[in-house]
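Data availability excerpt. The first of two example chains:
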Amino acid sequence: PPNVPDPGSGGSVHGDKMLLLLLCEILKHPRCNLQYLRLGSCSDTTWQWADFSSALKVNQSLKCLDLTASEFLDAGVKLLCLTLRHPKCVLQKLSLENCQLTEACCKELSSALIVNQRLTHLCLAKNDLGDGGVKTLCEGLSYPECQLQTLVLSHCNINRHGCKYISKLLQGDSSLTSLDLGFNPIATGLCFLYEALKKPNCNLKCLGLWGCPITPFSCQHLASALVSSRSLETLDLGQDAWGQSGIVVLLKA
């Protein structure tokens, strides 16, 4: 590609930095038909992420982007969100798992989700978003313009209050049909989720509670939600300490 340093010419650009520069030029090429791209564990400066985001605005083929374990940080997400808001962005699935993100990036993400009409899958697992970040995300997800269907929030340090925000979202007209809350300390907030599942306008089909602290007592409320829910089809309860009494209650349901 033109204007790209020769990989063997030496200089200050090496390794993954050179790869990203080359990739940006490839993505801008009109004959590029790449649909899935994974850039795991990529470490780059903000200006290089800016160049990459610019390339995504030009590319019209890439549907799935996986940036798992990249040093994207909140500053990188801000640049990416500018791309997501661009009318020519065609991304449908995006993974920012373990990218050292915090609550600070959620406002930009929330805004992008409102504007973007194509993104249906977003993974934010293993980022310390907390209840504040979840609240901001839910504000964006509650807009009818948002078309997101799958949201992965496992290992995001979500507590009771986060569950309340999610419950309110699910009881609205949200397009969300798949939600993963695995490995979050949400024991006292599960009751809010169960109440949301009982509502006739809840569209959730898949719920992941893997590794969440579900007690035998909580199983009674879960069983009631399973009987009442009109939409739920898949429920992941792996590594949860139900106890024998909890299992009996769920089996009856």
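And the second chain:
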Amino acid sequence: VEAVHLIADGKAPRIPQPKEGATYEGIQKKENAEISWDQPAAALHNWIRGHDKVPGAWATIDGQVVTFYGSSLLDASVPAGQELAIKGASRPGLVTKNGLIVFGNDGKMVLVRNLQFEDGKMIPASKYFSADETTALELTEEEKKMAEDIR
């Protein structure tokens, strides 16, 4: 009761909380989530997964910021894929049927499943080189009739 009265009267003591020993981490900002490529695969994986979903770990590919989502460590032989230059990486990534493979400075691999571009468009990483291709939807005669009935 006494504390409530002190607060109501504006006389409650104000003791600032010390910063040392604090465990609270401030809100992560996108500009602080850039991937540093000079580290082992496990650290890359932890960085990507730690920033998944907000704010999203990112790197520059073809001059634009691309955000990486859904990583996992990959312990296998290097699969076949199409090389993708990533700014700052000592070795190009590989776009494979399962996603984008990036390499740590220890030579081990991290598989990234999804990529998001600056415009907000998200694609499976395996479709990076086919992202611009569009396929037209072709309806069968039955589907065309159904579409007309719906209209």
